[in-house]
Structures are given as C-alpha cells and as structure tokens.
Amino acid sequence: MRARVIGEGANLGVTQRGRIAYALAGGHIDTDAIDNSAGVSTSDHEVNIKILLNAVVTAGDLTLKQRNRLLHAMTDEVAALVLADNYLQGLALTLEESERLERFDRNARLMRDLEQARRLDRAVETLPDDATLAKRAAARQGLARPELAVLMAYVKITLAEDLLASDLPDDPQLAEDLVAYFPKPLVERFRPELEAHRLRREIIATAAANDLVNRAGIAFAHDLGLASGRGPGDVARAYMIVRRIYDLDAFWASVNALDNKVPAKVQTAMLLAAGRLVERATAWFLKGTRLDIAAEAAAFRPGVATLGAALDQILPESHRRALEERRQALVAEGVPDALAQAAARLDFLHSAVDILRLALTTGHAVVEIGRRFYAVGARFHLDALRVAARKLAADTEWQKLAQSAVIEDLYAQQVELTAKLIAADGDFEPWLDGHAVDLQRIEALVREIEGAAQPDLAVLTVATRAIRGCLAR
Predict the structure, then answer these.
(1) CA-based nearest residue to 273, from 305, 246, 312
(2) Residues 324-369: pLDDT tens digits?
(3) What is the pTM of this model?
(4) Per-residue pLDDT tens over the stretch 413-431
C-alpha cells in the first residue's frame, strides 16, 4: 500500500490483520466499525426519536402526518448530533494513539481483565496475546490504532452495561444528558414525554459511557475503579463533577474549534493537559463519600474559577514565569490568548480541589489559601519533587502505581503543611525557621535528584519521609 490513509466505506474493506500490519508500518487507519459508525448512530437516534413520537401520536397529541413532517424537519439537527458524537470518537483514538507507549501497560491490563471476566476474546478480535504484547513492549510499539478502536468499542459496551446496572441512570441530575441526546424541537415541545421515554435509562447509560471514554480515555474508568474500589457509577459521577467544576465543556469546544487553524499537535497537547487534570481530580473526588453532582459542582466551581483567575498574582515567581512561557508558546502557534491562558493554567490547577477543600473547611478566602499553598509547595520543593516523580522510569503497571502513589503523597503533604501554616496564622518565615534543618535536608535531596540523569524512587521516598518529619513537629 502506498496510500498514507485508508478510510473504509463498507464493512471489511480491509481485514483486521491487514489493518494492524498497515498501521504498524506507519499507515493511518481505524476500523470499518469506526468509519461507518455514523450510520449506526443515525439509526439509534431514529429509533429512539420514533419511540418518543409514537407515544405522543398514540396519546392523540400529534397526528402521523405531523410526526412525519417533524421527523423530516429535524434531519439536519440529527445529522449534527451524530457527527459531533463521531468526531469525539475519532478524537479519542487520536489521543490514545498519541500516548500509546505511556498507556500501553494500562491498556494491556484492561484487555486481560476483560478477557478474564469473559467480556472479550482477544483471539476472536485479533487483539495481541501476552507473547505479542511482550514483543511490542520490547520494541516500544504499543497498540496499533485499529487495536485501540476494537478495545474502545468493547469498553464502551461493557461500561454502558455496568452503568445501566447501577443507579446512575436514575439520578435526576442527569436529565440534561438525556435532553442533549435529542434535537431541540423535541425538547421544547415534548420534554415531559421525553423524560418518560421507555429507554431513558439505556440512553443515559450509553451517553455517559460514550462521553467518559471519549473524553477521559479507554482505561480511565477501569483504572480509577480498581484504584478507588468504587463502582463504574461512582467513577462516572466523580468525572461529571470534575467536568462541571472546571467548565471543561467550554474548554474542549474552544480547542476543537481550532481545527485546521493551528497544528493538530497543539490541540492534542492541550487536550492531554485537560485529561491529566480530569484524572487527578476525579481520583480525588473518589476518595470522598459525597458524589452529589449538583452539590459538589455548586460548592467547588465558583472557587475554582476565582483561583484560576488569580494565578497570575498568587503563584511564586518561578511558577508565574513558567505559566507565561506556556501561554506565549501557545499564542505563537496561533491559539487565541484567552484559550492559551486557560490551557497554560491547567497543570497549575491540579491542586485546586485541595485548595478549595482547605478554604471550605477553614473559612479562609480561596485566593489567600491558594497563595499559601503554592508558597509552601515552592519553599519545600514539592513541585520539583512531583516533576521528578513524573520522570521516574515506569515501564510496568506496578512501577506506574508506585509513581502515582509518590505524587499523591506529595500533594497530601502540601495540604498538611498548608494547614499547619494556617494554624500558625500565616507567620511564614518564623514557622519555616523552626524547620530549617529539615528544609536543608530536603534541598540537598532535591539537588541530588535534579543532578541525576534519571530520578530514583528511593531518593524520592527519602524526600517524602523528610517532609513527613516536618509534619510530625
């Protein structure tokens, strides 16, 4: 094949083995199911719309002729809904492919777990067996895009089934997700009938699974469920809280609106930054007991917005420089200034949930808590330690779990140190003087870590213990 891209207009234009071989050789290809999924999605919308309207006709509120005219009038809007969904599905594969090596172990474990649960047969679906996975890992190849497409399909199916079996579809706060599935004329004229749709739960579960996988990644729900011990319904709720408090729908829409205006790699980088934020914040909410979507969004969203707007003033000087450099780099690539600013802030807002919780529990203003939180992070070199932790060699899933544990320990310690500073009435320098020996030891460890060619988990562990010593006094 000399073509750089293959799109299949019919089923099995290429065999799955052919797709994989072509993709591993550098070709761009999905699967026939991905390329033709808009047709299936259109049929789904048609069936669900007709179920709704047939009930209205049966009730005598609409004639059959009026129904048919309404169906015809909504053609373009249904097409727009379908294309938007399929756009996100293709984008999800692009994000997975861009981090195929970083996500290799988690996707491999996901495949094994699905197979062990008898929800996937790798041989039938031409997905790599363990021997092939080992070869791919050694060759640093990762999963091919057609393999990711098949795995994504199975994850969406199984996640939708799991969500349907949970109480998530019964949550009245998801009414808007149901409404978003249907064209506006139906929502405006038949909202009560729409909310009583006999496939209401199935539509909500499917829409939630699609959104979660498209936005957060193939292994996201599986991994966070394992790490937290929470079910798929709770993972979905925590994700929905995060989506709302960070106003991510608006951010994602702004990034996608830059298609063919800025390099695709720039859009991908911004979306991956948002993905890192989503993963950390979702895991944070899963540690709590309350997952009331509306209540948590109302409690956290205003504070997150206030904190984000104040970052330029409250970050330490080195952090402000880094923020400005990121913003300028994005603007240089053609990203509008407001969006460049929002994207540059993302990595600095991983701690926003910690800061908001401190503000809510202490009664202090969120901006002041943020100032102290970031100052503590800079003074105890916690940011540098987290950067080093992210650079750890993590070739296996266990190593990645250890890496994540160190990073979360450092966040937790920053929260505790900030709480101690608040208890000391913010008298920062005298408070630091009482920990001069500990600070010198931490600074020495940071110099050693930054001077090493490759950060070492053992040194980072010693550094976290030194910080723990500060907290004990």
Answers:
(1) 246
(2) 999 999 999 999 999 999 999 999 999 999 999 999 988 899 999 9
(3) 0.92
(4) 899 888 888 887 756 677 6
Distance CA(72)–CA(265), nearest Å, equals 39
CB 307 within 8 A of CB 381: no
Residue in the block written with tokens 């940011």: 383
Q: How many residues does the chain have?
A: 473
What does the CA dihedral 64, 67, 68, 69 come to, rounded to 10 degrees? 120
More confident residue, 383 or 220: 220
CA distance 457 to 473: 25
Please give the Cα distance from 110 to 132 (Å, whole number): 16
Burial class (CB in 10 A: 0-12, 13-18, 19+), 472: exposed
Over residues 133-179, the pLDDT tens digits come to: 999 999 999 999 999 999 999 999 999 999 999 999 999 989 888 99
Angle at 414 between CA 468 and CA 359, to 5 degrees: 135
CA 438 to chain centre: 36
210: DSSP letter: H
Let me know: does 341 contact 327? Beta carbons within 8 Å.
yes
What are the distances in angstroms from CA 231 to CA 208, 299, 397?
14, 24, 21
- In angstroms, the CA 89 to CA 63 distance is 37
Q: What is the mean pLDDT of the chain?
A: 91
Least confident of 183-187, 200-204, 268-272, 431-435: 431-435
- Most distant CA atoms of the chain, gap in Å: 83
How many C-beta neighbours within 10 Å does residue 20 have?
21
Q: What is the dihedral of CA 422, 426, 431, 432, to 10 degrees?
A: 100
- Return the SS3 of 137: helix
Between CA 171 and CA 158 the distance in angstroms is 20
Residue keyed to tokens 């296996």: 396
The answer to whether 331 and 340 are in contact (CB under 8 A) is yes
